[in-house]
Amino acid sequence: MKLNSAFFLLLILSSAQIFANISLPEIFSNNMVLQRNAEVKIWGWAKPGEEIKLSTSWSDEQLNTKGDRNGNWQIIFSTPDVSGSQEITISGYNEVKLKNLLLGEVWLVSGQSNMEWSAGAGITNAEEAIAGAENDQIRFFSVAHRTAENRQQDLDGSWVQSTPETMKNFSAVAYFFGKKLQEELGVPVGLINSSWGGTPAEVWVPSEAIISNDSLAKAAKMLPDERWGPNEPGLLYNAMIAPLVPFKIQGVLWYQGESNTSNAAYYEQLFSTLIKSWRDEWETEFPFYYAQIAPYDYGDNYSGVEIRDAQRRVRELPNTGMVMTSDIGNIKDIHPRNKLDVGLRFARLALADHYGKEIDDAYAPQFKKAEKDGSKVKIYFEHAEELHFDNGNKKSQFELAGENGNFYPASVKIRDNVIILRSVKVKEPKKVRFSWGNMSTSNLFNEADLPASSFRAEL
User: Do 22-101 and 104-353 fold alike per CATH?
Assistant: First the structure.
């Protein structure tokens, strides 16, 4: 009798293993936020030919599909703009229920340590921020650190609600961004953090995009070995980004660049390739906003400012935007502790640029063009309203160079929000640069009290 009981128990367990087949990637779980007002794709695994049904709490429609011969399936459905907790039920041989879901705005954040940095690691006013982090309308998904030689189908992580306990270990920049967005839009916000401190951009780019390009392949070989993380192309893209594709996101926030000072001359091409490759993978030109790295002593003269200038030039890609950090950095600490203002600047940029809100202080002055006027040079900026120098630091950071390429300080005047430069040592200006040094902190601001980026230009 005991033998028969054991046999039947084994038969039941075997049957469960045969038929209980529907499973989902970790990104689909309880407490998640799905992008509202969108066509959302959900996917997973099942038995080949298994009939799969999907229903949602916000619709009477039932959607159907079957597992393909490789055991994969996917369903696309519409998400409305509705409030409150929602559910999704997926059934086949077994049933999966996703509970306590919200429909709102979903953003992916990525980069290295300044994006990964949490309130628990130490930020300005950390205790106050942590104490006020209880908010059921903000949800976090933290991607675990993993590397992979090939693209992965899944990753480790889970969705959690914002509480003092969960917020203090999440990206502080992302939290402050999400908090501001949630307050202004009045909808839930989901934040997916896939960051790893000390990593160069190459590891976040599909490896084929690096290997197939001679310049980028050369740049990748210039990277030093880091104790904090990998430096081989594609290793983090494969493990920490590819499994998220094509989970519907509204846009991307990026904070990285410090680990590319060893090959700064290639960063514009590298970063542009990263943005384009991610958009190609998601098949959408989502907004891609990034923080310019702050001034810091990298032990040489120009590698850091070359990264900053490369980031400035990447703004030429459509639907991109850059937030400035030079005025809130720390030249002695590569991890400035003011993460609140970085997050708020990201949020104001997104609210103005993507959501169409009227935000007065969303844009920093951006270099537009330089023109020669005899021996003088005129510099024009976008968002140049009430252009002015910092009252405590009015010394000119502009320099001019002639044919020989030697730069000399230039005197400066502001007339009708146009910068006018001249130098008695440069009769025929050929080049101009501003705030050009690793530790040089911009002293030129607009009416939003946001600083102009360092730049260099030919005349």
Answer: no
Predicted pLDDT at 56: 98
- In 81-171, which residue ranges form alpha helices assigned H by DSSP? 113-116, 119-122, 126-131, 164-167
Report d(CA 87, CA 229) in Å as an integer. 38
> What letter represents residue 444's amino acid?
L
User: Is a pLDDT exceeding 50 seen at residue 8?
Assistant: no
- How far apart CA 101 and CA 103 sit, in angstroms, is 7
As a whole number of angstroms, the distance between CA 293 and CA 367 comes to 17
Fold of the domain spanning 366-458: Immunoglobulin-like (2.60.40)
Decide: 429 and 372 in contact? Cβ < 8 Å: yes
User: Which of 209, 134, 101, 124 has its CA nearest to residue 172?
Assistant: 124
Task: Provide CB contacts within 8 A for 400, sequence distance 6+.
Answer: 377, 407, 408, 410, 421, 422, 423, 426, 429, 431, 432
Does domain 22-101 match CATH 2.60.40.2950? yes
Query: What does the pLDDT read at residue 4?
Result: 52
Backbone angles phi, psi at 134, to 5 degrees: -70, 110
E strand segments, 279-365 = 288-291, 320-323
Residues 6+ positions from 20 with CB-CB distance below 8 Å: 93, 94
* Among 132, 189, 191, 185, residue whose Cα is nearest residue 163: 132
**381, 368 Cβ separation under 8 angstroms:** yes
Instruction: Compute the half-sphere exposure of residue 214: CA atoms within 13 Å on the CB side of its CA.
Output: 0
> Tokens 């030129």 belong to which residue?
444
Whole-prediction pTM value?
A: 0.94
| Strand 251-255 to 95-111 pairing | parallel
- List b or e across 82-102, with b for residues whose CB sees 16 or more CB atoms inside 10 angstroms: eeeebebebebbeebebeebb
Parse the chain into domains and list their residue ranges: 22-101, 104-353, 366-458
**Cα–Cα dist 196/318, whole Å:** 26
pLDDT exceeds 90 at position 10 = no
Given the candidates 3.90.230.10, 3.40.50.1110, 3.30.930.10, 3.50.50.60, the CATH classification of the domain at 104-353 is: 3.40.50.1110
Amino acid, single-letter form, for residue 391: N
